[in-house]
């Protein structure tokens, strides 16, 4: 009976994985089809005439390098700032015993119940007042770095870290900055990697904030630029599909790199010297 249940679990997991990944596979395969073949009936999974023309056309007609550079700048800057702010806030909320910090944490936690659309109008007013409208800093960095999700994740981890580590470091003469940088940050590398993956994905795929805060086409992110391929009367499907596939590559690279860091950290934590 246990064997049957185990087999059923694997079958269910495999079927769910196929359902989830099939649209992605279809997108990748379709990017190698020509325009006429995309809408042939009956539909075919594999391309009858394999072609790379869609990718060459995308690189020639679509300013991919500019849009990718804008998106990469916003994503990397926002991810670095988000991780640093989340680590510092989470550490302070977890390890410093002040009553007002508990009240502050509850107030910050309550903001997660607010839809993003509720704070967009006042946030946009602040950006415009600070002169950040139509800039990359205002188009996806400043409005997004303060995420309570990251603060909560880091706080919950730092709570599990023994306070004795801090006390021993203070006895040895370490100041608060050294304790945070030399002790706390190194032991939370897996959590930093997880937050970095999520933050990178959020910012790379962000559409709303760049749409609100960017009006200069030269400063468009990749997601905004993809919208220009969908016109009122026609959609350039071949270029759209190939560009969408290219836009997935950085996220896959980041996931592979940071996932390796997480696995290495987990393996190291299980080794007893």
Quick summary of this structure?
Helix content is 73%, strand content 0%. With 273 residues, the chain is mainly alpha-helical.
CATH fold name: MetI-like fold
Succession of helices and strands: HHHHHHHHHHHHHH
Under the CATH scheme, which architecture would be assigned?
Orthogonal Bundle
Structure classification: mainly alpha
Relative strand content: under 5%
- Overall shape: it is globular
Mean pLDDT across residues: 82
Counting DSSP E segments of at least 2 residues, the number of strands comes to 0
Q: How is the main sheet built?
A: none
CATH class value: Mainly Alpha
Summed up, the domain count is 1
Rg for CA atoms: 23 Å
Distance between the termini: 40 Å
Q: Compute the number of helices.
A: 14
- As a percent range, the share of helical residues equals over 70%
**CATH H-level name... which superfamily?**
MetI-like
Low-confidence stretches: 267-273
Structure description:
This protein is mostly helical. It is built from 14 helices and no strands. Helix 3 packs across helix 14 and helix 4 packs across helix 8. The C terminus is likely disordered.
Topology:
Blueprint lengths: L1 H29 L4 H4 L14 H9 L2 H32 L3 H12 L5 H14 L7 H5 L6 H13 L2 H9 L4 H12 L1 H16 L3 H6 L8 H6 L9 H33 L4
Question: What brief labels describe this structure?
Answer:
273 residues, mainly alpha, MetI-like fold, 73% helix, 0% strand
């Amino acid at each position: 009976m246990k064997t049957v249940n185990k087999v059923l679990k694997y079958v269910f997991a495999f079927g769910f994985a196929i359902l989830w990944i099939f649209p992605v596979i279809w997108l990748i395969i379709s990017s190698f089809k020509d325009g006429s073949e995309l809408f042939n009936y009956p539909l075919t999974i594999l391309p009858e005439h394999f072609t790379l023309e869609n990718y060459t056309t995308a690189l020639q007609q679509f300013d991919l390098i500019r849009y990718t550079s804008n998106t990469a700048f916003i994503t990397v800057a926002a991810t670095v700032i988000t991780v640093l702010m989340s680590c510092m806030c989470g550490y302070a909320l977890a390890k410093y015993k002040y009553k007002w910090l508990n009240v502050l944490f509850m107030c910050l936690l309550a903001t997660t119940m607010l839809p993003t659309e509720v704070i967009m109008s006042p946030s946009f007013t602040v950006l415009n007042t600070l002169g950040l409208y139509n800039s990359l800093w205002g188009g996806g960095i400043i409005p997004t770095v303060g995420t309570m999700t990251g603060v909560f994740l880091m706080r919950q981890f730092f709570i599990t870290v023994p306070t004795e580590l801090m006390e021993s470091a203070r006895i040895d003469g370490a100041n608060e900055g050294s304790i945070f940088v030399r002790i706390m940050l190194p032991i939370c590398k897996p959590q930093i990697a997880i937050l970095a993956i999520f933050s990178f994905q959020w910012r790379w795929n962000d559409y709303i904030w760049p749409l609100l805060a960017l009006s200069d086409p030269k400063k468009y992110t990749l997601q905004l630029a993809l919208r220009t391929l969908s016109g009122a009367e026609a959609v350039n499907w071949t270029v759209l599909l190939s560009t969408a596939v290219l836009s997935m590559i950085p996220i896959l690279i980041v996931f592979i790199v940071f996932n390796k860091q997480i696995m290495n950290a987990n393996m190291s934590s299980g080794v007893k010297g």
